[in-house]
Design a protein that fits this description.
Shape: globular
Number of helices: 8
Distance between the termini: 83 Å
Strand order of the largest sheet: 3-2-1-4-5-8-6-7
Number of strands: 8
Radius of gyration: 26 Å
Oligomer: single chain
Structural class: alpha/beta
Mean pLDDT: 84
Helix content: 25-40%
Strand content: 15-25%
């Protein structure tokens, strides 16, 4: 297994239209993510990365949504996903739509998103599936240097392992196919062979367990141990009376 961090220079597209079938990928993600967005709630949402800025999140109940990226036309904040200019535990949800795909250090991006998320905050991630027809394109010399095959493809199980290390609970995950002649995706492959779908989606929730006891639990833990019934003393007294 290749390490997550790489020294390879990756040129990320600034818009979905900058890659072949990019708008088809975006439309399919919009369709599959709408039920997920409808369940998110809170006050602040970050759409991290230029591609995330184009994802339709109008169905999300979080009204204050901020697009963070490098060069997209619809950005609110221009910043690197590796160094988000936000306070720790100030964001309710983060969207990483193929942000890890063109990252040299995906672990650092996940840690940075985890830093700004509140406890029980939401993390929505999408990416390409390496075990798909699209993933096979990385083995073709003429395709591996062009998007989308030039991006990094992490298996869903590897992504779930990263989230588990950060103590996230995966609420929802799926894989589905997108074909260039149908904007709604390949329903046949998505329904019967989801493992071969070219797109991954994972929705996870940050779980934080307190390392210190709450006052109520602390009081219970420091309560004095009550003396048990002195059965041994009573037994000895009874024996002494019988002997007398």
């Amino acid at each position: 297994m290749k390490p997550a961090k790489t020294q390879q220079i990756l040129t990320a597209p600034h818009a979905w239209r900058d890659m072949p079938w990019g708008e088809f990928f975006r439309d399919a993600l919009n369709q599959h993510l709408q039920p997920c967005f409808a369940k998110l709630y809170g006050f602040h949402m970050l759409k991290i990365g230029d591609l995330s800025a184009e994802i339709d999140t109008r169905s999300c109940a979080i009204s204050h949504q901020v697009n963070v990226g490098s060069a997209a036309s619809s950005l609110h904040v221009q910043a690197s996903p590796l160094q988000l200019p936000f306070e720790a535990k100030s964001i309710d949800a983060c969207l990483l739509a193929h942000t890890l795909t063109w990252s040299q250090d995906p672990h650092r991006i996940l840690r940075e998103a985890d830093r700004v998320l509140i406890d029980d905050g939401w993390l929505v991630i999408s990416g390409f599936n390496p075990f798909s027809l699209l993933g096979m394109g990385k083995a073709v010399p003429g395709l591996r240097s062009r998007a989308p095959c030039s991006g990094r493809m992490f298996s869903q199980m590897r992504l779930l392992d990263w989230l588990g290390v950060l103590n996230y609970e995966v609420i929802y995950r799926t894989r589905f196919q997108v074909v260039p002649w149908n904007r709604q995706g390949g329903k046949m492959i998505s329904a019967h062979l989801p493992a071969l779908g070219c797109l991954n989606i994972a929705v996870a929730r940050k779980r934080t367990f307190p390392l210190t006891l709450t006052p109520a639990k602390k009081a219970r833990s420091t309560a004095p141990i009550r003396q048990t019934a002195s059965a041994t003393r009573q037994f000895r007294q009874r024996n002494d009376q019988d002997a007398g």
